[in-house]
Amino acid sequence: MRIGIDLGGTKTEGVVLDPDNAEIVRRRYPTPINGGYPAILNTIVSLVDELQEHAGTPCRVGIGTPGALSQKTGRIKNSNTTCLINEPLQADLSALLKREIRMENDANCFALSEAIDGAGQGQGIVFGMILGTGVGGGIVVNQQLLTGLQNITGEWGHNPLYPDGPRCYCGRRGCIETFLSGPALAADYARRGGDSNTTAQTITALAEDNDPVAQEALAVFLNCFGQALATIINILDPHVVVIGGGLSHIDALYSRGREAAAQYVFNDEFSTPIVSNMNGDSAGVRGAAQLWPA
Ligand SMILES: [Zn+2]
To answer: What is the set of domains in the chain, with CATH numbers?
Structure first.
């Protein structure tokens, strides 16, 4: 039995998977952001204890986190849950839970889950991308997560798309995330004169209803998607691209977004399947458990 924990900015979810990847039990609690790092540690430890009690046997534990572990220091970096930054999360949890812990970036857990028993099942090279509040990604080759020298594999969200573009929280300008995240689409719609409180989902619906401002913002969004995706395809040539996150429900990504990518891919044809995820919101927590072999 394996326990997966998905530590998110608002919720912390846990699951027990059996050797056939079937879910035995699942629990979800709010992430105690206001209590800071010690409260987050406590929540994870009591969640693991609770899940293990249901499993009735000692379990291996995998954790998906925002950000990544620094290879140099063993501490969390690049996390938008800022109270985790510079904390030795893996070492602390390993000591508290008295076992070896596997830990990966949440987008990597998503990609792994979709490659093992989701929309990328049976495919050689899977690029899993998250389009949501942020933009992330992970690469799985033959069911094995690719983790590179610096634990940043797949982090395409902070590649520059337009160097003069909007400011990004990472300190640079014009990162892919400043064009392809939900807040980015909403901000672009507002810049063009739309209501600044409109969500990405509503903008998409308005575009379908022939709202010209929404159509303009969506067209730019889809072109940026095509450009950004083409760089991934030219370098990695994945057998499938699986999209997750809140924006994965935008149907136009799979039609017009795909056509946009075709213009920028260096090839005489464009056959890469671009598909929506199968494991939905469960992909992150399942992938965390699947950091351990069944
Ligand atoms: Zn950035």
So the answer is: 2-109+282-289 (3.30.420.40), 121-277 (3.30.420.40)
